[in-house]
Write a structure and sequence with these properties.
The complex is a heterodimer of chains A (300) and B (461). By secondary structure, chain A is an alpha/beta fold. Chain A contains eight helices and ten strands. Chain A has two domains: 1-103 and 182-191 and 212-278, Rossmann fold; 105-179, no CATH class. With 461 residues, chain B is mainly α. Classes of the chains: A alpha/beta (300), B mainly alpha (461). The complex binds adenosine-5'-triphosphate and magnesium ion.
Chain lengths: 300, 461
């Protein structure tokens, strides 16, 4: 897009940003993925969807995962959450291999997965009750999380009475109430309209600031990835491999005004380039004309 | 112009997949019941629409013809004239003194029969009761009344022709009795009443009012000694249906849920059940009687066999329909095996399960008639069977309608209870909540209407 603009190199970091990344690297490693591989068996034979995925996520880091559609982002995050089996390699949470889903690793899905038969409050209490706790303490704890996502007024509403954005906020509160080490989010705002989405991003940053949790966030929206993340994991398709692991040079705290800052645009430019590489000669693919136009209908 | 603006804001009656406004929906719902009823009334009460039969109000026996008609019987309209004329010719023969060759006892008995031909008419008019049909004194009294004009039959009226015959026969009797102090029957033949009747539909289509009245009469009738009354039969039928259904649900729901949850149980149970359900339940009736012997057990077992296998498959399918991502979400929240079953699967499927059971209860009703026929006939079906055999369809229809109404109203009741039981389903929430629903929600969760409007703590701005 903005090739013609004179943008800085996305790898150049201001001293504060560099210091921040240095401090993040000092933090303990929460999640470590080594040589992860995933194959699916289909009638046509075996298909390698993910191959040689290795990376580390530090405590309280915000990592986004982007890549072309079908490259295996959802598969990766489902494996990390324990919802999908591993074909090869290791996933370590604080040094221990993980197996199956657990309350240590929360997940927010793109589709709405609130339990429709429970009120907002009971939904948020679900994880706590499953862990064997009950009583007024649990209730007030749940209310704290509901307050955090700004839905105290709807504590006794059923999910079908909420809008999509509210549902996802409840889903976030429900996951966080378990105080997981790490929170996986698979395009959680994918189904929301642009405005709600922007609001939700702001909410998420706010929540993340108040909670000690590492977040792995799948998205296909580049702005969203840059706006939210410390680092961005870029996957390529067929087979899904890590293309680049970018440190976002945009300083924190983040602000929607940064969307047009040079560092932001430089990062976005780089991501564009990685996801939709431009090959010479292929730029103006001619579309077949399917409908005759009358003179005077010229649009360009 | 005016017309154009009108048509734009009123929905067409035939808009594709658009709900009609409330009043139109109500109107159509009412019509869906009124139309068939109106059609029934039309066919029953407008004489020239169908009415291929004549229902006899006065019947007569013909000499040398074995078919015997009594009042209440139907004869084809085309045959009726032939029948009446034949009787007239017999009367002419009697008047010409050519009478029959009967004599003595047989002739006297024949005359008694002729006199008793007025009995149905007299019962209808309330002159005699039903067990006075063979009471000669009462019959004589009716003849005397009719002949002297003391009694006048209305609806059905006696034709002038028949009235004349009554008077003539009465004179003959008077003349004979003047000589016979014993008041015996004369051995000379009397004149027969000419068959009389009114237009009617075939026996299998009684008139609506006849069905209603007979139904009401049967419902309140004293049963014969040792036999159950209609309300008792109704309770018995309900008992059979609900016991069979309840047992099927008791056994079938857990198996269905297990099959829908674990592939292990699905593969273990479902193939056989899938095979078994194709064997019609009535085919097992004799077997069930052999196993469970008499009384209600084989009947309940038949409803069970007819319902259980379908139920397992339907429930298993419903369980599988539950959104799998809810289970995944629960797992990432720490839920393990039993928690998943108890906290996700069970509450998640109950609304659909409720609907399934509603539909299967309807299914159980369809087995009722066959169930009550096996072993010793019982319940409402016995009424349908015996009355149907005697072609008393005005007694059969009320029973059939009673079964239909019971099924219909149970289903409506259960459907209306659904939003009360599952206030969280989108249908229940979209619905305007009546006072009953609001009360129920309040009883089950007092917090529902307490929403504090505290400002939210985390504002992104
Ligand atoms: N259960 C499965 N069985 C077989 N193949 C699968 C299965 N799940 C995913 N795949 C394949 O793996 C590939 C990656 O899928 P995945 O859903 O992870 O992609 P994605 O990056 O999340 O795509 P999108 O951006 O569209 O959400 C796809 O080609 C898909 O067809
Ligand atoms: Mg995906």
């Amino acid at each position: 897009m903005s090739d013609h603009l004179d943008l800085p190199d996305y790898r150049e970091q201001s001293p504060e940003v560099a210091a921040r990344f240095a401090s993040i690297r000092q933090r303990p490693v929460k999640l470590e993925v080594c040589g992860l591989e995933k194959r699916f068996h289909s009638p046509e034979g075996e298909r390698v969807v993910l191959q040689d995925i290795s990376f580390k996520a530090h405590r309280r880091e915000f990592i986004s995962i982007i890549g072309p559609s079908g490259c295996g982002k959802s598969t990766l995050i489902r494996i990390l959450a324990g919802l999908e089996t591993i074909s090869g390699g290791d996933v370590l949470l604080e040094g221990n291999a993980v197996k199956g889903p657990s309350r240590e690793r929360g997940m927010v899905f793109q589709g709405y997965t609130l339990f429709p038969w429970l009120t907002v409050k009971k939904n948020v209490m679900f994880g706590l009750e499953v862990s064997g706790r009950s009583g007024p303490a649990v209730e007030s704890e749940a209310m704290d999380w509901i307050n955090l996502v700004g839905l105290a007024r709807y504590a006794n509403a059923y999910p079908s009475e909420l809008s999509g954005g509210m549902k996802q906020r409840v889903a976030i509160a429900r996951s966080l109430a378990n105080q997981p080490q790490i929170l996986f989010m698979d395009e959680p705002f994918g189904a929301l309209d642009a405005q709600t989405r922007a609001q939700m991003q702001a909410y998420l940053l706010q929540i993340w600031k108040n909670v000690d949790v590492t977040i792995l966030f799948v998205t296909h929206d580049l702005d969203e990835a840059i706006y939210l993340s410390d680092r961005i994991l870029v996957l390529k398709a067929n087979p899904g491999e890590i293309q680049e692991f970018i440190e976002v040079p945009v300083p924190r705290p983040r602000d929607p005004e940064q969307f047009i800052s040079p560092t932001f645009l430089a990062t976005k430019n780089r991501l564009e380039h990685l996801i939709h590489p431009r090959q010479p000669g292929q730029e103006q693919a001619r579309l077949p004309i399917t409908k005759m136009t009358a003179a005077g209908d010229e649009v360009e | 112009m005016k017309r154009a603006s009108r048509s734009s804001d009123t929905v067409s009656w035939f808009a594709i997949r658009k709900p009609l406004p409330g009043e139109r929906r109500l109107l159509l719902t009412v019509l869906s019941f009124v139309l068939p009823l109106a059609l029934w009334c039309l066919v029953s009460y407008v004489p020239f629409i169908w009415h291929p039969d004549i229902k006899l109000t006065v019947a007569a026996d013909r000499e040398g013809v074995t078919t015997v008609y009594t009042a209440g019987d139907h004869v084809a309209r085309s045959y009726f004239d032939e029948y009446a004329n034949a009787v007239r010719r017999e009367n002419e023969a009697v008047q010409a003194g050519e009478g029959t060759t009967r004599s003595g006892f047989s002739a006297r008995r024949n005359n008694v029969k002729i006199l008793r031909a007025v009995a149905p008419l007299a019962i209808e008019q309330g002159w005699i009761s039903e067990n006075q049909v063979t009471d000669n004194a009462a019959i004589f009294d009716v003849w005397e009344g009719l002949a002297t004009g003391r009694l006048v039959s209305e609806k059905p009226e006696l034709t002038p022709e028949n009235l004349a015959i009554v008077q003539e026969d009465w004179q003959t009797l008077q003349a004979h009795w003047a000589e016979d102090p014993e008041h015996e029957m004369p051995s000379d033949p009397l004149l027969k009443l000419i068959p009389q009747g009114r237009l009617s539909n075939p026996v299998y289509l009684p008139e609506p009012h006849a069905v209603l009245l007979t139904g009401w009469k049967d419902w309140n009738a004293e049963p014969a000694e040792g036999r159950p009354s209609l309300p008792e039969r109704y309770r018995h039928s309900l008992y059979i249906v609900f016991s069979g259904f309840f047992l099927a649900a008791l056994a079938g729901v857990p198996i269905g849920i297990l099959s829908g949850t674990y592939d292990f149980f699905s593969k273990l149970f479902e193939p056989f059940i899938d095979f078994f359900r194709y064997m019609p339940a009535p085919a097992f009736s004799t077997l069930l009687v052999a196993i469970f012997l008499a009384h209600d057990a084989p009947k309940i077992a038949l409803v069970f066999v007819g319902t259980f296998f379908q139920l397992v498959l339907v429930v298993a399918n419903t369980t599988r329909q539950l959104d799998y991502s809810l289970l995944e979400a629960a797992q990432t929240l720490g839920a393990k095996r039993l928690d998943l079953l108890r906290r996700v699967i069970l509450p998640g499927i109950t609304p659909s399960l409720y609907n399934d059971l509603r539909i299967l209860l309807g299914w159980a009703w369809t087995w009722l008639v066959i169930a009550e026929l096996i072993g010793v006939k019982s319940g409402l079906t016995e009424v349908i069977e015996t009355q149907g055999r005697w072609r008393n369809f005005e007694s059969v229809f009320p029973v059939i309608i009673l079964i239909g109404l019971t099924g219909f109203f149970t289903d409506q009741l259960l459907a209306n209870l659904r939003p009360l039981l599952f206030p969280w389903t989108p249908e229940a929430i979209g619905q305007k909540q009546g006072p009953l629903v609001r009360f129920y929600r309040w009883v089950t969760d007092q917090q529902v209407y307490v929403r504090d409007d505290k400002p939210t703590t985390s504002d992104p701005a």
